[in-house]
Each structure stands twice: as C-alpha cells, then as structure tokens.
C-alpha cells in the first residue's frame, strides 16, 4: 500500500506540474501572439501606464484610456490600438475622423458590422423574447467573459446554461419567423394577388440579401431581428432615462419650464401629436441633443470588423479580424469642436439651427462626421426619425402628466456607469413622481 500511495502521489505531482507547464505555455503563447498582432498593425499600442494594466481596468476604466488616446493620437490624425479584453488575440483599433468616410462606405465583404412583422407584433411570446433578450444576452456575455477563457468559449453554447438559454430563444425566434419569411417570398414571386408593400426590418433584410445574391436563413434572420430588438428597446430606454435625469436636474429647472411652455404652445395648435407637430418642438430637440452630447450612451461608434486583410487609402493596414471604431465620446468634450464643451447648454443646438441655411441641421437624429449617435453610412440607424419621435412622445407624456423629481437625497443627475466602452445612466437611482390629475404625495 505505501508503494501504491507513493505512486499515486508521484503521478498527482507530475500531472499537477504538467498542468502548470501547459498553463504557462498557453499564457506565453497568448502574450507572444498579442505582441505579434500589435506589430502587424504598425500603429501605437496604448495601455495604462500607472502600474495597473489589468483586465479589470479595461472593463471599468476604458474612458480614461480613450481620453489619453484622443489627445495623444486621434487629434493628430493618428490611429491607436489597445487591448481587447474580450478576445486577447485581437487588439481593438480606434481611428481618427479622417477615416470615417472610407470606413462607412467600405463594402461589407471587407469591413462588416457585427450583426417586425405584422404577424408577430401582437404575439405575446415574440414580444417577451424581444424584451428579455437584452438582459439575457448581456448577462450571458458578462458571465462568459468572467469565467471562460477565450480558447474554450466555442463550447459554451452546448454546456453553459446562460448561453444555452440565449441560443434557445434564438432558435424559437427563428421558428416564429418561418411563416413570415415564407409569406414574403410568396408575395415577391406573385403567388398572392396584390401583395402588400412591406416596409419593415424583415423586408429590408430580404431585399438586402436578394440584391447581393445571398441566402437569408431563418437563423440569420432571427439573429438580426433580435439585434434590432436590443438596439431599439435597450438603447432608446437608456437614452430616454438619461434625458429625463437632465430634465429633473435642479440646474435645468428653467429650461424644463421653457420646454413645457413649448409643448403647451404646439399642442394648442395640434391637439393630436403627429410627426409634423412633434418636429416643431425645437427646444426639446436641442435639450435632448445636448443631453446626449454630455451624457452619451457608449464611447465608440461605427464599429466594424475586417473580414479580410484591409488597407486604407493612406496605407494603414488592418489584419483580418481587427475590430475598428470611431471614438465618439471625447470628441463631444473637445473645446476645438464645441465652445465651453463641459457646460450643459440646453439651447446650444437651437442657436446653430437659427443660422440661415442650417434650419434642418443639428437635430437630435442628424448625421455628420461629429454626429454619429445613430451610426454612419449604410449601417446608420434607418429608423432614427421614428426613434427620436418615440423618445419625444414619452418625454411629453412624462412632463405634462407627472411631477417628477429625484428623492430627497439627490438634486442633480447621478454619475453615469461605465462598462468596457459602454456608458449608461445609473438605473438604480430613485425618483419620485405623482400624477398631476390625482394629486397626493410623490410615489417612489
């Protein structure tokens, strides 16, 4: 028995040493490959230089790194790379604005975006999937990043419960989209008399695929539809909440009163809120745009992935798989772009629109090189006008029918929360409200 015990102990030690050696070898391989990828990019590689360059630092403090990169490189027309903690083998690249035109117009076969029907819009199961997929997918992604190494994540859809649940919802969404896609194909081939002219995301994807000779599978259609659900529900909710925080901030009380007067004036002329009526709320629009300028939802915009090795016209080379993006956040705080950029000026964009010839510019849903809130190029949000109108209608309802304020402990909007390149208003902040028609105390 002692011999057997010694043998087992020896084997255990050997296996432990082997595992240690294997782990060290794998770590070294990753580090060497990261250095190799960075050298292929031939651009500065930015990292935290204060002694803490940990993975967690990139999760919680990317904003400070973006500020350094903006001042040191982007303002001088120089791209920079930084660590991609999600995929250690693929550094991320941030491009200066001079690349925006080429980036947004590059064919999808080279630089690609990572990516409802009337039959489903009232289907409770479909709506529940669309609503739940946001938190479900984000929680799964965070859990996966926290507990699974990059090389093992291929197995997660088969054994990791949070990811399995997301995939189950994707499969169910694909099943539900089957009849919709078949109906569109039938209408396109004339199997139905007088086919309706569809104008929704399903049809956009069908037309896009057919125009390029590609096959649109149900699984791919479901992935796109759920992506749009996340974009439309999650982003619009965060933006609305962020603007509301600014509206009830004690520093903006006068601006809120002016906006309320504008709403009442337009409503007297237009008792029913139509899109032309909503478009007359120019002061509300200016306030919303200033709110998003200072309290943006996300640091970066126009994210693309190089599907093949790609070279820009000036010679900047991207290896296959490189993720590139345009930095949006720090640009909004640049004194060379905006006068007194750190001051909340609710009528900043209203004054710009009062300049002759600029009446239709500088709106909440406008697009330009410095206005990339809704993306750029072919992948700019096609429903940005509808999203803007929806946010305004929600704010109109809240401002005209409720008294809303922060609780007694707070008079000003809370600091935003950051996670990786995402930023969003603190959803745990307590607010008090009461319906104006009923009176009574404020409810939490």
Task: Offer a concise description of the structure.
This protein has helices spanning 2-41, 55-60, 62-72, 100-105, 124-147, 156-159, 161-188, 201-211, 218-247, 253-269, 275-279, 282-294, 348-353, 384-401, and strands spanning 45-46, 80-82, 92-95, 111-112, 300-306, 310-311, 317-318, 323-327, 402-406, 417-419, 422-424, 431-435. With 444 residues, it is of the alpha+beta class.
Detailed description of the structure:
By secondary structure, the chain is of the alpha+beta class. The chain has a domain at 1-41. It is built from 14 helices and 12 strands. It has helices at residues 2-41, 55-60, 62-72, 100-105, 124-147, 156-159, 161-188, 201-211, 218-247, 253-269, 275-279, 282-294, 348-353, 384-401, and strands at 45-46, 80-82, 92-95, 111-112, 300-306, 310-311, 317-318, 323-327, 402-406, 417-419, 422-424, 431-435. The strands form 4 sheets. The chain has a 6-stranded mixed β-sheet. A two-stranded antiparallel ribbon has the order 6-7. The protein has a two-stranded antiparallel ribbon with strand order 9-12. A hairpin with a 2-residue loop joins strand 10 and strand 11 (422-424). Helix 5 crosses helix 7 (161-188), helix 7 crosses helix 9 and helix 9 runs parallel beside helix 14. The longest helix is centred in the N-terminal third of the chain and has 40 residues, at 2-41. The chain is globular and about 60 Å long.
